[in-house]
Design brief:
This protein is an alpha+beta fold and 758 residues long. The protein is 44% helix and 21% strand. A 7-stranded mixed β-sheet has the order 3-2-1-4-8-6-9, with helices on both faces. The chain has a 6-stranded antiparallel β-barrel with strand order 13-14-15-18-17-16.
Length: 758
């Protein structure tokens, strides 16, 4: 034993050194990855054996209970590690099939499932489907409306697509899709969520995989063109990928090797005959997608296409994200009861393992709770869940952790790091733990809830109710540290090894809990439509102008744009309706709603108005390209401390373009009149310097008192006796400058004149 304790630490130090050198020299080489994965599995296996046979407590009921719970979590984690590295062991070698390889093109029915999503969101998806580069006579688009809304039927009529509804909402989304199947007859079926906009090449890249009769469905990643709550609330859009990207693109590619690709409810093309053979989309569970995919894979093949071919909206608030994961968690546990992977006919052993692993994943909230609770129980109450000293930790835990860190960093391709995984898990752990226990034991019936999309708010909100467990455990962590300091001062002694190990553990858990609090601070979302960075030249012109104005497009959505023009052309800018050319032969009608000088440029905001169908389709085709909708897909030095400091620095700032809710438009040589309450017959001439929907800046020879109520008339702006109040005044060379705030900014005549900032 003495030889072991003498030389094993040196051996492990050498292993760690070799690991790091291999990682630094050739991090992308397939052989290096595989060697590091093997070492990761071996060191973690050694750690688990050490934990099982040498560290479990043998005295005290609470000690033994916590010891068994903790080691059980670690054993399950090790099994999940084995499954994970099996998936990422090597990339999928699926050969791409070209559409030119097909003898003929099959007909495709597109089902857009909708319930209560905003029309603006649904409209983008319909336009994306109409823009698909696939023969138009072979595609039929169906708005499958379970909300029975007249506005959706009108949208279908406006765009020339089919409208389907039914008398009841039985089986929610699955029932909606099955009803659509009964009303249609296309050879293939594409299912899309209401917010998922397909890119033009979607069918060209997916349909060819049905060249044989064995493929049941082709799954495309769900990708998102807005920021999820982790990216948005932490001001980390350019630093971390969307939280779902790792599963959608990395893990799905691994599942493809074992014919276990998960159907994720959208962006999926099915062979109709395969669906009919299993009785249509699975019903009786919240997550019909997982069950449907599993039943199909018992009889047919599935394909994962790694390329992003459709983009949608991620949950836009922290509460909506939790509701979405609540539904997924309950649905997976329901599937385990009704469609047990161990009993579904036709599945291979690996398929069963992967589906079971997916179900077990939704219990990770419980496991995380035990990891958080364990060191606190020891430091507060002396409940010991394991026995270890520093030398043992160095010999077994450190190699396992370090090899896991390097292996995960290599195979994740910087889409996910271990610490950000810790933050994701900590933020949702308590909620998902409660959901899992509730669904497992109470079997409470929960109504299917659609994740809200298209949220707009100018308020900041902290979701305190969801964060109460986090606050409690953070306070307990602080209490632990205070108690340790007190014990050392009073008693002067402590079990140094175990205490220091658990202090480190508490601090690590505390960091995850603290970062979770930041995620729960929802930032304002000022716009209904997401803006895409464009940065290309365009043209502004009007029917009343012989020459167009050269402009530079900065950002753009389907409802408006921000652009710049040379300041020397500002006088040519027409304040009425104009036409914005965003490409050589594509344009959209717009109104100038604000402008302000910035250096030698005039920044201009336009709102798209009276957009015709052809214009809107061109606009969506222009905006929804892989280049425009791409969001960060790699982690970029997103350390916790930097993220927190960025949150503190930016959290109270209003975006530059929105520091005034309605940006002021400068006016030149525009005059008006001003009268006072109680003296309406006295009209004072004033000069108007700028104006917005909410107010204006004026200059007058008369004195205007602060907070004085006035009526303002501006002939060129079709504004007559508009009530206003002076919110600031100043004297310059015997004249008064004043800022007026319109008392009724929602006044219809103002809105019609100015439009809204989109």
């Amino acid at each position: 034993m003495s030889l072991f304790t003498t030389y094993y630490p040196l051996f492990m130090l050498c292993v760690l050194s070799v690991l790091y050198v291999m990682y630094r020299i050739q991090p992308l080489a397939s052989t290096v990855k595989k060697i590091i994965i093997v070492l990761c599995v071996l060191t973690n296996a050694a750690y688990i054996c050490w934990r099982l046979f040498f560290t479990l407590p043998h005295e005290g009921t609470f000690n033994m209970i916590m010891g068994i719970l903790l080691v059980a979590c670690e054993c399950i984690g090790f099994l999940q590690l084995l499954v994970f590295y099996t998936l990422v062991w090597k990339p999928s070698n699926r050969k791409q099939v070209m559409i030119s390889d097909l003898d003929r093109l099959p007909t495709v029915d597109i089902f857009i499932a909708t319930y209560n999503e905003p029309i603006e969101v649904l409209k983008r998806t319909v336009a994306g489907c109409l823009n698909l580069s696939y023969p138009k006579d072979s595609v039929h688009i169906y708005l499958c409306d379970d909300g029975k809304r007249e506005s959706v039927e009108q949208l279908a009529s406006e765009f020339g697509v089919h409208y389907l509804t039914r008398t009841d909402n039985k089986f929610a989304k699955a029932g909606n899709l099955n009803h659509a199947m009964s009303q249609t007859n296309g050879e293939l079926i594409l299912t899309l969520d209401a917010d998922m906009v397909p890119l033009p090449a979607f069918l060209e890249k997916t349909v060819p995989y049905f060249h044989d009769g064995a493929t049941a469905f082709v799954q495309v990643p769900q990708a998102f063109y807005n920021e999820d709550p982790f990216q948005y609330n932490m001001f980390s859009k350019d630093r971390i990928p969307n939280e779902q990207d790792f599963f959608m693109q990395t893990l799905q590619a691994g599942k493809d090797r074992f014919n276990a690709v998960m159907y994720v409810g959208s962006n999926t093309v099915f062979r109709r005959t395969a669906l009919e053979e299993i009785g249509g989309f699975a019903t009786g569970v919240i997550t019909e997608d997982m069950a449907t995919g599993m039943l199909l894979q018992g009889k047919f093949k599935s394909v994962s296409v790694g390329e992003v071919l459709a983009v949608g909206l991620a949950p836009e608030s922290w509460l909506d994200l939790l509701k979405q994961r609540d539904r997924w968690s309950r649905g997976n546990i329901q599937c385990a009861r009704k469609f047990n992977p161990l009993k579904v006919r036709g599945l291979t052993l690996m398929q069963r393992v992967l589906y079971l692993d997916g179900i077990v994943y939704w219990f990770n909230g419980l496991f995380k709770m035990i990891y958080i609770l364990t060191p606190i129980l020891f430091l507060l109450f002396g409940i010991q869940s394991f026995w270890a000293d520093f030398q043992s930790i160095f010999m077994f835990w450190l190699p396992a952790f370090f090899s896991s860190y390097l292996a995960f960093k290599l195979v994740s391709n910087q889409k996910r790091s271990m610490f950000w995984s810790h933050i994701y898990e900590s933020s949702m752990a308590f909620h998902l733990a409660g959901v899992a226990l509730s669904e497992l034991f109470l079997k409470k019936r929960v109504e299917f809830l659609v994740t809200p999309k298209g949220i707009q708010t100018d308020k900041r909100h902290f979701h305190l109710k969801t964060m109460i467990p986090h606050l409690i455990f953070l306070l307990l962590s602080l209490l632990v540290l205070v108690k340790i300091g007190y014990d050392m001062k009073v008693n002067g002694t402590m079990n140094a090894d175990l205490t220091l190990i658990n202090i480190f553990w508490v601090l690590y858990n505390g960091a995850g809990l603290f970062m979770a609090l930041i995620v729960a601070f929802d930032r304002p979302r000022y716009r209904k439509s997401e803006r895409f960075v464009i940065e290309k030249e365009g043209q502004l012109c009007s029917d009343h102008q012989d020459e167009s104005i050269a402009c530079f497009l900065l950002d753009m959505s389907d409802s408006g744009a921000r652009l710049s023009i040379p300041l020397d052309q500002a006088s040519s800018l027409n304040q009425g309706q104009m036409q914005l050319f965003f490409s050589e032969d594509q344009s959209v009608a717009c109104d100038v709603v604000w402008s302000h000088p910035e250096g030698d440029k005039l920044m201009v905001g336009v709102a798209f108005t009276d957009t015709e169908k052809s214009e809107y389709l061109s606009l969506i085709r222009f905006l929804f390209t892989r280049e425009h909708v791409s969001i960060t897909d790699r982690e970029k030095k997103s350390y916790a401390v930097r993220t927190f400091l960025r949150f503190i620095r930016e959290t109270e700032k209003v975006p530059r373009a929105l520091r005034r809710k309605w940006v002021r438009r400068p006016l030149q040589s525009v005059t008006g009149t001003l009268s006072y309450e109680g003296r309406l017959e006295e009209k004072v001439p004033v000069t108007i310097h700028d104006i917005s929907v909410s107010g204006c800046k004026i200059e007058s020879e008369e004195v205007i008192k602060l907070h004085e109520k006035v009526l303002i008339t501006i002939d060129t702006e079709s504004l007559t006796d508009q009530p206003a109040i002076a919110v600031w005044t100043s004297q310059r060379r015997g004249r008064t400058m004043a800022g007026l705030k319109f008392v009724q900014p929602e006044n219809k005549q103002i809105e019609e004149r100015e439009g809204v900032v989109s």
